[in-house]
Amino acid sequence: MITVMIADDENLIRDALGSLLSLEEDIEVIAHAATGNEALAQAAKHRPDVALLDLQMPAPDGIEVARALADSLPDCACVVVTSHGLPGHLKNALTVGVRGFLPKTVSSTTLAQVVRTVAAGGRYVDPELAADAIGAGDSPLTAREADVLAMADDGRPVDQIAQRVSLSPGTVRNYLSAAVTKLGVTNRHEAVRLARQRGWI
User: Fold this and answer.
1) Residue 111: which of 97, 96, 121, 126 has the closest Cα?
2) What is the rounded CA–CA span in Å between residue 139 and residue 32?
3) Cα separation of 111 and 133, whole Å?
4) For 44, phi and psi rounded to 5 degrees?
5) Do 49 and 147 lie in a common domain?
6) Domain with 86 in it: what CATH number?
7) How far apart are CA 66 and CA 72, in angstroms?
8) Which of the chain's ends, N or C, has fewer CB atoms near its CB within 10 Å?
């Protein structure tokens, strides 16, 4: 029997996934979680074979949960199930050891097969998401440029960004300027939009 934990902050999605997987004779859903912290606690308590993780849930997010479980529970195969399958998200997930990555639009048959595949040590990445990730390429931004650009998301002034990231306003301007240049856009607002679309911030 393959044991599964489902972590998603949307009750309806979490319950639906659990109901669908419970119909499979060889799969048992043994834990549910609504936040990243709850997922880590439930995983430590129940030690599931597979963790189905929503990408965007209350902190930590699915990728950070997968990173933590890779250290604390390496035998648990993590699968990200998301409605936000951007190229950068997929690459980040694979970097931390996620074994499966698929959209919430997959069929219940595919989901069950993915659970079996990763539980047996295999991997599964949705073909369409994989093609998008290959087409988008790697992020040209350094980690620091990405952090500063993410802070500029809501039009926050440079001085406020500088305070939040503990840098001088001049250094923040330099990082923003570098991001704009690397992304081939004309201003930081366009840079934020493009980087968000590709999952780089």
Assistant:
1) 126
2) 34
3) 21
4) -65, -35
5) no
6) 3.40.50.2300
7) 10
8) N
